[in-house]
Amino acid sequence: MRLLKNLLMSSSSSSISSLVSTFPFYDSYILDLWGVLHDGTTLYSPPQPTATLTYPTVLSTLNLLQESGKRVHLLSNSSRRKSTILMQLTDKFKLPRSLFANVVTSGEVGFEYLKSVAAAKAVAAPRLVCFGNSIDDASYVKDARWVFATSVSTAELILARGTFAYVTSSSSSSPQQPQLLTKEFILPILEEAAKAKVPMLVTNPDR
């Protein structure tokens, strides 16, 4: 793949005058979602053109990449599954599915890892507690073939998807209102986990 080859061969950085100027060197492009293509509400709109400059839109840029034979891969550190982000892109942001080849989320990568661990268990499903987003934590864990532990001391893993809910077996069955967890709440749990040598999987590095 030329993208990797050029990265490995490049010994110094240089300024890029335009996206088009990179076309001879790369076959594929990896674009972040939040902060690059959208702001969480809408696709980014270009600033007002000046006498000498006009700015492309997100859609015109993606169309240009497609027309030039480039593959676009979208990347996100969202804790959500790939299917959720795909639905958001096509339904909420009205982004044509034909304009990108794939979406990779940290939530999907973490989910596949959890599934592989659960599949290797011969008998009982593995147990975890979750710092969650309070939206889809229960279904995420269930679909990955894990179950919630009663507390961190009985868990095999801490799953960190956000800091808006703390989910155990006693709270997983009832929806929780999103509420940002405080440091004072989180630290004792992490200290207990450290003493018990319970590892943590983080699927959303933001917070």
Number of strands: 8
The profile of the biggest β sheet is: 5 strands, mixed
CATH architecture verdict of the largest domain: 3-Layer(aba) Sandwich
Distance between the termini: 34 Å
What's the number of domains?
2
What is the average of the pLDDT values? 88
Can you put this structure into words, describing what you see?
31% of the residues lie in helices and 16% in strands. It is α/β, with parallel strands linked by helices. The chain has 2 domains: 2-105, Rossmann fold; 121-202, no CATH class. The protein starts with a helix and ends in a 5-residue tail after the last strand. The model has no long low-confidence stretch (mean pLDDT 88).
Please supply descriptive tags for the structure shown above:
single chain; 207 residues; alpha/beta; Rossmann fold; five-stranded mixed beta sheet; three-stranded parallel beta sheet; 6 helices; 31% helix
